[in-house]
Write a structure and sequence with these properties.
single chain; 5-stranded antiparallel beta sheet; 4-stranded antiparallel beta sheet; 6% helix
Length: 448
């Protein structure tokens, strides 16, 4: 899959109507002018309460949200090409990223829905892995032409730091200025990638199809080191405090020092806890622990620095094939053909469970600790995080893709046709025009 995937027709605002009328009276074809207009047309759902109009005829109605204390905080229509669809959503820090069927990345300000940028990443037949962020990355520009010289020492020394979003395809690492949407560096890989990556802004860490994981210098574009595993690695590596965490289908978790490539610990070391199944789902790391969902029906939790387990592996009744979600006090894990579990992060004991699977879409503290759980039947439950008691429920209608999120107080969803929304409690207030950021122009079409 591309990104973590579960799986409007009109913007409907006065602003979108003005844009449409201007384009209608122009001699330039409307679709061409649309590509040059601001990237996304924002429906200011916060400046006026969203109403049940034709605009929402294909989606969950605003009144349905209002009945459970929610609202469309912002809504926008991403201008897509013919037959282009939004396939995946990914929430990374302050940005919401949409990946389309044409491998075009649309970046949106998650707080306001403000227009940001859109960028064609690769041919639609390529595989594109999830984005990660690096702040103040001093990466020199390079177009990836191996026939030319790679960045020189002087170019590296003169590189100015910028906030980057970094991702990889099967063949390249792309370093993008996440403010402007400009590709700063396109680094060809000396191998075929098999996972998404992690970065500290200096190096990029990614696994290859031969079961190795590698450190690639983003400045010189050269490989710094690589380490082998006993099988494939499909779960993206995670990075924290100068240590890289990898878990593979060889049933081993690895902690590796990024500066040297030396092993800090593995799950097979004495004092750690061995796994008895392959790891294919995304792992997670926080300030103190590494969380590994395993195909042997267990969630393993390792001390980030020692590899010891603070509590016994949490046992489910089905394989863990979906990434773990780490909240402030609760760990959330879906088990295939079993249940969705909420686990006390301190003790490793079960808080509650629910049949029907799904993912956490948001976590709020409006009335205590609440989480919003989307199940496999397109129902969203407002649950007490500690007890699992259901406080409200509504049915999702018209949205195809959701952003997993166990920490931020907002839900993000998109339809395949390009409607992207942020849903928040009514108590979040209204979005004002002053909160919106200026829009950036939309580049031309994605490559065919």
């Amino acid at each position: 899959m591309i990104f973590h995937n579960l799986a409007c027709r009109r913007a409907g605002s006065l602003r979108s109507w003005v844009v449409f009328m201007k384009e209608r009276n122009s001699t330039t074809p409307f679709w061409k002018k649309l590509l040059a207009t601001p990237l996304l047309i924002v429906v200011l759902a916060g400046c006026h309460q969203a109403q049940d109009t034709d605009e929402w005829s294909d989606f969950t109605q605003p009144k349905a949200l209002d009945r459970v204390g929610l609202q469309y905080y912002w809504s926008l229509q991403a201008p897509l090409g013919k037959d282009e669809q939004i396939r995946c959503l990914s929430l990374v820090d302050e940005k919401l990223y949409c990946l389309t069927s044409q491998n075009r990345l649309v970046a949106i300000d998650a707080a306001t829905g403000g227009s940001m940028w859109s960028l064609a990443l690769a041919n639609p037949s390529q595989r594109v892995f999830p984005p990660v962020h690096a702040n103040a990355a001093a990466v020199p520009p390079w177009d990836g032409d191996v026939a030319k010289d790679r960045p020189s020492t002087e170019m590296i020394a003169k590189a100015k730091p910028f906030d980057a979003v970094v991702l990889n395809t099967l063949s390249h690492i792309l370093v993008i200025n996440r403010v402007s949407g400009e590709i700063v560096s396109s680094i060809p890989l000396p191998f075929v990638a098999n996972s998404g990556g992690a970065t500290d802004g200096t190096a990029y860490y990614v696994a290859s199809v031969d079961g190795s994981y590698h450190a690639i210098d983003l400045r010189s574009t050269l490989e710094l080191w690589k380490r082998d595993t006993g099988g494939m690695v499909s779960a993206a590596p995670r990075l924290m405090g100068g240590v890289l965490y990898v878990a593979g289908e060889d049933q081993v978790a690895y902690a590796t020092q990024t500066a040297t490539g030396r092993s800090l610990w593995t799950s097979r070391d004495s004092g750690s806890t061995p796994m008895h199944g392959p790891v294919t789902a995304d792992i997670a790391v926080d300030a103190s622990r590494c969380y590994v969902p395993c195909g042997d029906n267990r969630l393993y939790v390792y001390d980030r620095l020692t590899g010891k387990c603070p509590w016994e592996p949490f046992v489910c009744q089905g394989p863990l094939q979906q990434g773990v979600q780490v909240g402030e006090a609760t760990i959330f894990q879906n088990a295939s053909r079993d249940k969705f579990y909420a686990i006390d992060a301190a003790s490793g004991t079960q808080r509650w469970s629910r049949k029907g699977g799904g993912m956490i879409l948001a976590a709020t503290k409006e009335k205590g600790n609440e989480v919003y759980l989307l199940d496999n039947s397109d129902n969203v439950y407002t649950l007490d995080e500690i007890t699992g008691a259901s406080q409200a429920v509504w049915t999702v209608f018209g949205f195809d893709v959701f952003a997993p999120n166990a920490t931020a107080p907002a839900m993000y969803a998109a339809s395949a046709g390009g409607r992207v929304v942020c849903i928040r409690p009514r108590s979040a207030g209204l979005l004002s025009p002053e909160m919106l950021r200026p829009a950036a122009p939309l580049p031309a079409a994605a490559p065919k």
